[in-house]
Every structure is written in structure tokens, then in C-alpha cells.
Amino acid sequence: MTLNSSWRRGGRCGRALSLVALITLAVLGVAACGSPLDEARTLERAGDLEGAVTLYKVILADDPKDLEALTGLAVDLLQLKRYDEALPVQEAIVAVDTKDALTRVELAFNYLNHQDQPDKAVRYLTEAVALEPSPKNLTFLAQAQIQAGDPEAAEQNLRKSLTDDPEYAHAYVVLLSLFDFQGRPEDAADLREQARSNGVDLTGTNGG
Fold first, then answer.
1. Which fold has domain 1-8+15-93?
2. Do 35 and 101 touch, CB atoms closer than 8 A?
3. pLDDT tens-digit series, residues 68-80
């Protein structure tokens, strides 16, 4: 989504901001007829993520579906390690943008690493794979499936990842860890040989 045209044209202020938004902008020293989005990015470059978060929330108070503001807010909240607060923002992004694979991956890892909800991680990584079926996304999906208690599906996706890219080391590492956990030393040995034959050095990794 692009900015409202009144923000991009100089000389007049056609966008009707709420009273709360106008007060917030005044407190922050941002001109109501300027671009709060540009100011938020300026604050980010200066390292003031908290100030940028406040501005993004001002923008979203008037337009809850502004993708640029939603994305900026989600990124800043993740950098600030405010994962619970970032979660509904990430959910809003994927609801608005049905083609955004990256945010689906980030949302999935929020569920996986910070919310202890691997089933939801599987859901969003499945959507990400449908949009971008890369070996990396397949491996991410497999990691979530392992935590969700579905090792068979995880193995299938890891093998597909290695079929698509026989040199993708992370897929070997995850699959070897799965084999070791399941007590499958022969399969693990075969996989290590497969890695060596494809020029993949697993020395120093969990698979080495």
C-alpha cells in the first residue's frame, strides 16, 4: 500500500487526522502536513526505535491497513524484543498481504520460539512454502513440524529440500539431528556420505 497522496504532495494537508493523532504528532514535533512515515524512518536511522514505534501507531490509528506502517512497526517491535506486541501486527500484515512470504516466516518463528505454539508456526510456514517453495523455507517448515510432533512430514520436506538443493547444509544438519534423535545411525551415516559426495562440509556443525 502506498501513502495517501496528500502526504506525498507538498503545500497542503488533505488527510484528516484524528484529534489524538494530531496531538501525538505535535508532542513529537512532527508536522501534521508532513509525512509521519518518513519521520518514523528518520527516527529508525537515528536508532530511536521507540519513537518510530509511536509514529507508526499514529499512522495506523487512522489507517489500520497501511502496509508500510504495519511492516515498519513489526520490524521495530521484533528488534526491541517485544514479541508479544509484534504478534498481532504480523498477523495483520499477512491478513492484508496474501503474497508476503517473508512476514509469514517471521510470524512462524515468533510462534515457534516465543509463543510455544508450533502448530501455528507450521500453518504459516506452510503458507510461506506455497508462496516461495525454497529449500530454506522447506527446512524451516520441517523444523516446526518436528516441534509440532510430526517427524514424518518433516523428513519428507527435508528430503525434498535436499533434492532441490543438494548443497544446502542446514537441511542436512536438521535431518541428521532428526535421525540421531530417532536412533537411526545407518540412515545418518548414509546422509553424511550424501553430504560429502555433494561437497558439503558438516565439520563443526551439529551434523558433523
1. 1.25.40
2. no
3. 999 999 999 999 9
